[in-house]
Amino acid sequence: MDFARTGLGFLAFGIATLAGTAMAADGKAVYDKTCVVCHASGVANAPKLGDKAAWAPRIATGKDALLQSVVKGKGAMPPKAGAADLKDDDIKAAIDYMVGASK
Given 1.10.10.10, 3.40.50.1970, 1.10.760.10, 3.30.70.890, which CATH number is that of 25-101? Predict the structure, then answer.
């Protein structure tokens, strides 16, 4: 009986873990859908993805500051990069993706 109970516990944990992973925001997908328009080409002085020199001072401000820049808008970038339906977790995932690709 204990073996069956333990097995069910592991199964439930596995399903919950997979569900959480599936629901987690995908930074590259958010970037590809919303951010790529400006950050691939550098439109309006947007730092290009992978440009370490352009990203370094922005990365140095910290992820909270980057999040606020996206949420509120900065320079030519409108609030939430013009995608009002973006959730903070989506934005954080995109920031993580862009920072990771630009270090």
Answer: 1.10.760.10
